[in-house]
Predict the structure.
Amino acid sequence: SISQDIDHILETQSALAIDLGGTNLRVAIVGMRGNIVKKYTQPNPKTYEARMQLILKMCADAMHDSVSLNCRILGVGVSTGGRVNPQEGVVLDSTNLIQEWSSVDLRTPISDSLHLPVWVDNDGNCASLAEKKFGHGKRVENFVTVITGTGIGGGIIHNNELVHGSTFCAAELGHIMVSLEGPECSCGSRGCIEAYASGMALQKEAKRLHDEDLLEVEGMNIKLAEPITAAHLISAARLGNNNADTVLNKASTALGVGIVNILHTVNPTLVILSGVLASYYQAPVQRIISERALPSAQNIKVVTSELEEPALLGAASMVLDYATRRLY
Amino acid sequence: SISQDIDHILETQSALAIDLGGTNLRVAIVGMRGNIVKKYTQPNPKTYEARMQLILKMCADAMHDSVSLNCRILGVGVSTGGRVNPQEGVVLDSTNLIQEWSSVDLRTPISDSLHLPVWVDNDGNCASLAEKKFGHGKRVENFVTVITGTGIGGGIIHNNELVHGSTFCAAELGHIMVSLEGPECSCGSRGCIEAYASGMALQKEAKRLHDEDLLEVEGMNIKLAEPITAAHLISAARLGNNNADTVLNKASTALGVGIVNILHTVNPTLVILSGVLASYYQAPVQRIISERALPSAQNIKVVTSELEEPALLGAASMVLDYATRRLY
Ligand SMILES: [Ca+2]
Ligand SMILES: [Ca+2]
Ligand SMILES: [Zn+2]
Ligand SMILES: [Zn+2]
């Protein structure tokens, strides 16, 4: 029937999603339902010129492939590290992770090259949009996403919309401070939850313990050339290493107290933990909330994201949401 | 002319404002421009029954006076300590400051008695509404009010609206924690900015110094029966008392770091400090922001409220805003 035909055509609507991270540059064709049809990965070049060139090249390749894959690309969504002005499609300044990435207009060159509309937002905000459209944030009007990866990022959804803030630095949740002194943070301040609980911070502590010969315990075997990571710290603690346990307890407490601060500020319905350390932190954060939040905020649920590719899905959702708003 | 007559009639529109604080119960007739036409003050009774009776009595008196004062009362606005459901007009639970003040329906009895619509919100939120209508928050879409009085409260205006939160405990800014350990707070947690920087916290430190004979300095003369307050601490510090200075520095740092946490969460355009300690804290908080906020949040301005009666004006503004929305 015609109605089935239209349904079928609508189902082929897709987005081109770009994820600009500290290590990799990724492009994906993403379908209406959040299905990743095809994905392209390259190391993220170190200079602006090489990076822009590679972005345009990977997008052109994906556009070419999209035809034979029967995907109609409606637009391009970009997730990037750094502070972003989404109205202009410009990266204002970047984290230390991505070099030569300040005052970069992403919209104009991509749009000129592909003749498609382009949306840009930062990775924390994209992760929140992904949860809103495809994850635990579906039909939730007010929630917060906290991403514990190499660093700590986040996004706040209030009344179904992202909170960007007056200078586009809302939801810089990694730099919530839970100590007047506390460990030095990459931002120049001290006591930020990123300096306690990020993958970077845990790795630093793991290395320190390893250097002092305090990391390895019975049942654990670290090879000589093996890079020491947060995962070693977690394994060691599980195998009864008290030093590792102390470090992780402090990290969990810091993260939990930081999240309580968010609850006492915007009081969302739900907290979604995302990133590699999310499942590790879920239970301790929920416990810290029950210990340190006001009674009226103690029942706020903490869940772990189930999305495989939050940055790509969030980038795609900016395109797909806009398209569906116009079409249905 | 008729147009002048109508202007004159519109100008006589007023609100009845009620402020329920820890010490006093106050009622005021407030005009369109935030002018307090008449004010009534009584000690706030200790029991629910006596309090409700007194509220209704004071309102009836004010309604009576309003006729001869040529004020047309359009409705009643209530500012109260505690957590409030403004949709229902109910105090959900109260701070320790007001006894027998949980699950209290304020709207029904006041509305039944006066035959007027009734709005209720908490004192921090009312202070923010007052700034929005009559103070530094005029024409500012996104700002935060932090009230440093006996305790610390606050309110957040986002896109011209108050943020109430999923359980009506948004903007519980006094319980933002800036220390994993830190001083005990009345809420049961530790390290809250209220436990460092509120009038109560400073008074406690002032008393401690006084008991240890460390408060008085040259040029300062504390009488025997004189109650020791935060004001003594500030005077002593200004006269060169290092102990007092250390306490106040810590308090300012804690408050400043707490406010930076708010900036990194909702990133407002403006921070308004309100309450008795506001003018004292303004400069140090601005300095802490420049030292510890992300560069993109460092230029956010901190100002001191110029409103004499934020709670009453905010309570009135709920009435006047609703009325003007309907009439113009
Ligand atoms: Ca963010
Ligand atoms: Ca409040
Ligand atoms: Zn930081
Ligand atoms: Zn507290």
In short: The mean pLDDT of chain A is 95. Residues B 122, 124-125, 153-155, 171-172 surround calcium ion (ligand 2) (CB under 6 Å). Chain A is about 40% helix and 20% strand. The two ends of chain A are 19 Å apart (CA to CA).
